[in-house]
Amino acid sequence: MTQTPTSTIDGRTTQALQATLGAEHAALWCYSLAVAFLVEPQQSQARRDADVHRELRGRIEQSLTQLGQRPVSAQPAYATPQPVTDPASAARLAVVAETDCQTSWRALLEQTTDRGLREAGLKALTDATGRGARWRAVVGATPVVPVFPGRP
Amino acid sequence: MAAQVGPRLTRRALLAVALLGPPLAACAPAGPTQAQAPDPLIALADAARADAALAAAVIAATPDLAVRVAPLRDARTEHAAALDSEVARQARRSATPAPPRAATGAATLDALRRSVAAAGESARQAALDSDARRVGLVASVAACCTTYAAQLG
């Protein structure tokens, strides 16, 4: 076969990968806001979760660059569904961030048959479900573990 | 499972994206040659039913665990129904849900944790090869099961 390596990943896949990058950008922004309002031990948890998103974001950007795509940039700010004014609303924002990430990772899985991306997407979806479950427990959402994480 | 899909593997997996070969559509496993193989989602649905039955048995044996285990029982019941529907859709026939089973083996929290962890790994493996239409469902089942397994650990 003489096709270039990038032919494995088609336009729909890179578009979905850009969408997951957008969700990771948004999650990082959400955590930076939430940390300002959370108290311990949730504040440390938020910092740890943000670290994971930061690393994930870097990997997606690197992958897109390798695919010859320019990674989308973060927005300067994001609209929160509800005002963040206290620890409870900050934890709810973390739930929103993780839920959005789950949705985008599941959508990516539906746009690719590439095995490496499927592996990475499954790991990312599962990890986001675990983080989301911790925040759902903090805010008292039930069930703590969504039955179908990432389902739009 | 954690050792198998640690961050190192994920990094490799993502970085490997650009290094992989030509499009896989021509050699995708879902071709007619495998039409005779049983639908892999049947086993996932059976595992979901078994987990639901085991969770119910755990609650019956230790009612104090109901708060922790009932959501898992309900989730696995929903998984079974959704997987049955997908199997039926692909086979172009109406869903005929299998009867709920009685749990076999010791109805302990640890047995339930091991069972749901194994189900999560089976679903993860199945999701790697699922077609676009069903991969989302299978991936969600995998994520849910793996998260419950970690919670019960």
Can you walk me through this structure?
The complex is a heterodimer of chains A (152) and B (153). Chain A is an all-alpha fold. Helix content of chain A is 66%, strand content 0%. Chain A has four helices and no strands. Residues 1-7 of chain A have low confidence and may be disordered. With 153 residues, chain B is mainly α. Chain B has a single domain (39-152), classed as Up-down Bundle (Ferritin). Chain B has helices at residues 7-15, 40-61, 66-91, 109-129, 132-152. In chain B, helix 2 (40-61) packs antiparallel against helix 4 (109-129) and helix 4 packs antiparallel against helix 5 (132-152). Residues 1-34 of chain B have low confidence and may be disordered. The interface between A and B is large, with 49 and 48 residues.
Give the structure's gist in a few sentences.
The complex is a heterodimer of chains A (152) and B (153). With 152 residues, chain A is mainly α. In chain A, 66% of the residues lie in helices and 0% in strands.
Q: Domains counted in the coordinates of chain A: how many?
A: 1
Corresponding CATH superfamily of chain A: Ferritin, core subunit, four-helix bundle
User: What is the tally of helical segments of chain A?
Assistant: 4
Which word captures the global form of chain B?
globular
**Structural class per helix/strand content of chain B?**
mainly alpha
Which fold name is given in CATH as the topology of chain B? Ferritin
Output the radius of gyration of chain B: 17 Å
Q: Work out the helicity level of chain A.
A: 55-70%
Strand content range of chain A: under 5%
Order of helices and strands of chain B: HHHHH
According to CATH, the fold-level topology of chain A is: Ferritin
- Strand tally of chain B is 0
